[in-house]
Amino acid sequence: MDFFLATGVFALVFIGFLVVLTMRGGEVDQKQNLLRRMARPEDDLDIDITRKTRVREQGQLLAVLWKLNLLRNLEENMWQAGIYMRVSEMLLVIVLMFLAGLFLGQAIWHDSLFAAAAGVGFAFLPIVYIRFRRVRRMKAFGQQLPFALDLMKSSLEAGHSLNRGMQVVVQEFADPLGSEFRTVLEQTRIGLPLPRALEDMLKRVPEDDLRLLVIAVKVQNDVGSSLAKIIGRLAEIVRTRQRLRLQIRALTAQSRMGGSIVALLPIIVLGAFSLVQPGYAGVLFYDPTGLKILKAAIVMDLLAFITIRRLLKLKY
Questions:
Q1: 5, 98, 178, 233: which has the fewest C-beta neighbours closer than 10 Å?
Q2: How far is it, in rounded angstroms, from Cα 128 to Cα 148?
Q3: CATH classification of 139-247 is 1.20.81.30, yes or no?
Q4: pTM
Q5: Would you call 75 helix, strand, or coil by DSSP?
Q6: Rounded CA gap, 307 and 65, in Å?
Q7: What is the mean pLDDT of each run of 10 residues along the chain (316 residues)?
Q8: Is 107 exposed, middle or buried (0-12, 13-18, 19+ CB in 10 A)?
């Protein structure tokens, strides 16, 4: 028990330190993040050879995980979320969170299955945090994109080049759009073609609206056309898509809220009974049959919540 207690305390303190470290800002951190974004490993053959060597040095377990694309997907999501930590550091956080959840579950319920479930739940918290940061960053980028396209269109109509228009965008817009276009400009300055730099940005920000811009620039670079008119029309299309997306969310808001309430209702009722009449709910936590019923209820509630979320997820 002392070992679990020490592990849990150390995990919580270390995780708090990492959260403060990742939220730290400043000019030095911005420059380091810019260099790491520019030096981001790509999918060509040479980089794959380098990565295999690095993973082999870290151990056979990481090599197997990398072959399953688990580490690569984690790295992609971290980059898209704006979290520029090493994958090994994030794996350490996940392991420590698992140990902390295992300790808390064992201390509260004194059941190995509940302790393991709590550990798995705590281990998923960093992944949920990465997903939350990723969704928020992608949403902020999408909201900034139409205004950036308008600014680029005005710059092109004034006779400036596309690079100069992107420089104005970098000066006028904050993160995430400003930092991503700054990375594109830095890549073009070291000799990377603009379409390739935009494709790299699309990997970092996998937005369908941004994909339209990349396609427009590639078409203009190949066949030649009025890029200002294309970007102006593209800004209108992006705004129309965003309005459609908001309308869909408004029309499905009642169903999504209903699914969340149905999923949370058993937990709320159980908590209310535990406070009002502890004897009724105590059977579920201390009786062997009650524990089996509680475990089955948790599994079915989670499956129902996931099913409702999947049914209400629209692809357009």
A1: 5
A2: 30
A3: yes
A4: 0.68
A5: helix
A6: 28
A7: 54 59 48 54 39 47 62 83 83 87 80 81 89 90 90 88 88 88 89 87 86 85 79 89 87 82 84 81 79 84 83 70
A8: middle
